[in-house]
Design brief:
The structure is a homodimer. The first copy, chain A, has five helices and two strands. A two-stranded antiparallel ribbon of chain A has the order 1-2. Helices cover 49% and strands 6% of the residues of chain A. Chain A binds a DNA duplex through helix 3.
Chain lengths: 130, 130
DNA sequence: ATAATGTATAGTAATACAGTATAGTTTTGA
DNA sequence: TCAAAACTATACTGTATTACTATACATTAT
């Protein structure tokens, strides 16, 4: 029913990188966001493969943002970690992305809620959170 | 991230009882909502103990709504089954119900989303769904 | 060369979800 | 009265997801 801890951590990590504004290694990131190193590494890998941040190997390696904080929204981060937000998965058809697919009035309410949440998340950029 | 199947079933069951407008036994309810009898019984028990419906034992027993469809909102049903909707459990303090408790900007956004969803659910009554 | 990084894959413990099983109790009505 | 038709209470189980960990490896700056 809620978003996952992993999403919450991912937001913290991206915000931290934006705050610092420079390349940071995994250890520093983990310590400053309160996430264990191992779990932070997993989340960082996720963010890298999703194109949100980029990584550098070797000594002096680490992570930095791939886009400016103004161009990254909360929705971008959450969708990267757990996919598009849907309040209720549709029980009748497999695909709830199109409103004309909604089978009954309840589903229409749920679809409206999903859309509203997505819009609210898209309205907040990482720059807003600094 | 989504609401549970049990909530979805609970909504269907309450809407079905409203449609029928008379006492129905568990078997009829299960068959007409597409929920297995056992699981429907569990949900019905939940709805009874929450005061949303009342039950009658013996032959001619069954279930009926305790309030009129106009007086039951989607929010009432969902909160009964899974508690108050919160988009993100607060990681810092234990209690996310008071906005002044929110510790940072992200939490404020998440709190706003939770409140919006709760309001949208409260705006829809079972009567609206018939 | 080597130490400091990140990468890839796989594994695990805890929790929640979805559903089932068993053994009742109560009520109606023939 | 008593049996059938209902509901009740408790507890169990399999599966999926969440949250995290472990091992072994690859790359790069100095």
């Amino acid at each position: 029913m809620h978003i996952t801890l992993e999403s919450d951590y991912a937001v913290r990590i991206v915000v931290y990188l934006a705050q610092r504004g420079c390349r940071c290694d995994a250890n520093t990131i983990a310590q400053n966001t309160g996430v264990t190193l191992r779990f932070a590494l997993k989340i960082l890998r996720n963010l890298v493969s999703g194109g949100m941040i980029r990584s550098f190997k070797g000594t002096q390696g680490g992570y930095e943002l791939n886009r400016s904080p103004e161009e990254i929204t909360l929705r971008d981060i959450l969708e990267l970690v757990e996919g598009k937000y849907v309040f209720s998965r549709c029980l009748e058809s497999g695909d709830c992305t199109r409103p004309e697919n909604t089978c009954c009035k309840v589903q229409r309410v749920f679809f409206d809620i999903s859309k509203t949440v997505q819009e609210k998340l898209a309205a907040v950029t990482v720059a807003d959170l600094l």
